[in-house]
Amino acid sequence: MRDRRPPLFGAHPTEPQDSDYDAEAMEKENDRSISDMGERVSMLKNITKGIHDEVQGQHSLLDNMGMDMTGARG
């Protein structure tokens, strides 16, 4: 991003930057950011699936314990 403050403080404007280069550089940076975000989303999905599986296992264990306790009383 071009700094627009120098002309406000009396500095002479610099030559304009190549907007095609800036757009291409920004596009590459966006592509990298999207790729990084995709990797993080995939990692979070795997973590979430692991938590889900663990909760399901714990829930099943508690159900079985409840049935065992009911049978022990009866």
From TrEMBL:
<keyword id="KW-1133">Transmembrane helix</keyword>
<dbReference type="GO" id="GO:0000139">
    <property type="term" value="C:Golgi membrane"/>
</dbReference>
<keyword id="KW-0333">Golgi apparatus</keyword>
<protein>
    <recommendedName>
        <fullName>t-SNARE coiled-coil homology domain-containing protein</fullName>
    </recommendedName>
</protein>
<keyword id="KW-0813">Transport</keyword>
<dbReference type="InterPro" id="IPR039899">
    <property type="entry name" value="BET1_SNARE"/>
</dbReference>
<keyword id="KW-0472">Membrane</keyword>
<feature type="region of interest" description="Disordered">
    <location>
        <begin position="1"/>
        <end position="22"/>
    </location>
</feature>
<feature type="domain" description="T-SNARE coiled-coil homology">
    <location>
        <begin position="24"/>
        <end position="74"/>
    </location>
</feature>
<dbReference type="InterPro" id="IPR000727">
    <property type="entry name" value="T_SNARE_dom"/>
</dbReference>
<keyword id="KW-0812">Transmembrane</keyword>
<dbReference type="GO" id="GO:0015031">
    <property type="term" value="P:protein transport"/>
</dbReference>
<keyword id="KW-0653">Protein transport</keyword>
